[in-house]
Amino acid sequence: MAFLLIVIYIAFIGLGVPDSLIGSAWPAIHTEMSIPVEAVSVLTLIISGCTVLSSMFSAGILNRLGTAKVTAFSTVMTAAALLGFSFAPSFWVMIPLAVVLGLGAGAIDSGLNNYVALHFKASHMNFLHCFYGIGVTLSPYIMSLALNSAGWRGGYRYAFYVQSAIALLLIISVPLWKKTSATDQPEEESGVNLSLLQMAKMPEIRQVWIIMLATNAIEYACGVWGSTYLVAEKGFSTQHGALALTVYYAGMSVGRFVSGLLSKKINTWKRIGIGVAILAPAVIIMLLPLHGAVTVVGLFLVGLGNGSIYPNMIHLTPHNFGKEASQSVMGSQIAFAYIGVMLAPPAVSIISRLFGIGVYPVLLAVLYLIMIIALKCFVNRLKKQNNYNTDV
User: Fold this and answer.
1) Coil, helix or strand at residue 90
2) Which of 112, 157, 230, 388 has CB 3.0 to 4.6 Å from 382, enough for a Cys bridge?
3) What is the CA radius of gyration of the chain?
4) Does the structure show a pLDDT above 50 at 28?
5) In this predicted model, what pLDDT tens digit does every residue of 114-148 receive, in sequence order?
6) How far is CA 355 from CA 285, 295, 379, in A?
């Protein structure tokens, strides 16, 4: 069972590898293909949208084929998409490849999170997302090395090799995922099914939606546009911009890992507060006209502070809304998180086209202010309802 858990962690690395490649490679891609820098938002929107669709409709396939086979096949899909990107002759060829990448990623995310929730202790779920962080940290580092010699296409091929190795491991490990009637299917739980309209009428749920949208928008605005901002505004080379993005994702991974370590000593609300507090100086550093190297420190702190907010808010869902309603609320939270993922890169594109890439840090500051205001209102409402739980 321990070896299977290691395989699952490695599979989550594979989930993260494709996510940060496009952001670190884009300064070189749009230059080579002579396409507008804002075109990256088309690809990220397609990938995110297909990830949402795949997540929504993956349950039937997972129940029919099992998590092991679906995860292995989906990882093969993402590897094939990465290889396709490396040979893409034009931007238009990248669009169907983005569809394949998004569909594969959604099935992996849904299958593995559900499997770990059913078969392993809750503590493993906290660290599972750290391994995703390893994946998104690894790929821009690979890209930064490739840009020095093999170019962005070589970076995608190197990422393909990593993803193929993970896919091979998953295929070999399929027999480990033993099915039993007692453990393969989730237990039925009695719960209240709340419609989207019902939840929209509840102020506390609307506030959580805003928090989830904002924190994920910050994450992806940095992941997709951080490298381009450093290259265009701070004078970084494309390879140094990609390397700086590695630092950002390293901060996110460290933030989640440390939050998991502190979970036995510091309650969840305090860990969220620490993340919010770290974000404040990070945003200020990004806003100030400082030297480019200092801006990299700001990106690291953004990842460090923001990285722990999402998983900790997810963990608090049954405590904030009750176990009966938690499944409905959980689904809506994740939906709004993906909305943040989809909207942030296009928002940066529009703002950059209107005012220039130099205003990019202002958008981060606005998202941060929206998040902390919504978080403050949410905490106040929980306290009024005597539902502010500091024991978890």
Assistant:
1) coil
2) 388
3) 20
4) yes
5) 676 556 664 676 677 778 778 877 888 888 888 88
6) 20, 20, 35
Closest CA to 156 of 146, 170, 165: 146
Sign of CA dihedral 214, 329, 128, 56: negative
> Is 191-392 the same fold as 1-176?
yes
Supply 78's token pair: 């993402």
Name the band, by pLDDT with cuts 50, 70 and 90, for residue 195: confident
Q: What is the C-alpha separation between 185 and 180, in angstroms, rounded?
A: 8
* 8 Å CB contact between 18 and 69: no
Decide if 262 contacts 313 (C-beta within 8 A).
no
Neighbours of 354 (CB within 10 A): 8
CB 42 within 8 A of CB 96: no
Q: Which CATH superfamily is domain 191-392 in?
A: MFS general substrate transporter like domains (1.20.1250.20)
| CA separation for the pair 337, 210 (Å, rounded) | 9
Residue 122 CB neighbour total at 10 angstroms: 10
Residue that is written with structure tokens 């295929």 in the block: 171
CA distance 67 to 184: 9
Residue from 216, 311, 300 nearest 262 by CA:
311
Measured in whole angstroms, the distance separating CA 288 from the mean position of its chain's CA atoms is 27
Residue 386, Cβ neighbours under 10 Å: how many? 7
Q: Residue ranges of the domains in the chain?
A: 1-176, 191-392
Q: CA–CA separation, 20 vs 26, rounded Å?
A: 10
Backbone φ and ψ for 178, nearest 5 degrees, come out as: -70, 135
> Whole-angstrom Cα distance, residue 74 to residue 388?
40
pTM here is 0.72
92 vs 95, 153, 356, CA distance in Å?
5, 16, 25
Superfamily of domain 1-176: MFS general substrate transporter like domains (1.20.1250.20)
